[in-house]
Sequence to fold (191 residues):
Amino acid sequence: MERDRKTVIADAAIALLASAGSKGLTHRAVDAEAGLPAGSTSFYCRTRQELLTVALLRHAALDMADLQADAHRMAQAEWRADDFIDLLAERVADWLSPSKRARLVARFELFMMASRDPELAAIVTQQRQHFLLATEAALSRAGVADPAGVAPMVLVLVDALLLDQIRASGPVLSLSQQKAMFRMVLKGEPR
Fold:
């Protein structure tokens, strides 16, 4: 039961971070967002730090589940670098989709908070290692040379594309432009 309640709390915290930012994230606001009795969030997460930690870990788990689904898809057939480029573009589009947009906004809110909080930064660093390993495995499966060297660049490029496109107040890169960027990183080809 406790795990389910913490998941509900974490999901509500993610929703609040997306809609109200870090200033809107309070125990009381999480209770209201989750439809829980007053004091529930404080019972499961005594401090704001604990609340941010469960939100950050839940967010990472949701993103990792998406990457695991991608890995399962890759295991079903032979993959080349071009197939992986298509998959990366699809992953970016999925994380920018209306159903996941709030989660993406919360991600960058959490990253900004982690830039000023050593405890959160340590969690982000630890979770990033999981993402690096998953990316490295996918690159290896796609036959990309030097997966360990390319994986960090892929993560940075995905984050940059997401951050650039989530603002939505300016022009966004086309699908062909995104694929060209991925191709440059994976294959060293300009276009």
About this structure: The chain has a mean pLDDT of 91. The domain at 57-187 is CATH 1.10.357.10 (Tetracycline Repressor; domain 2). The two ends are 52 Å apart (CA to CA). The longest helix spans residues 48-75.
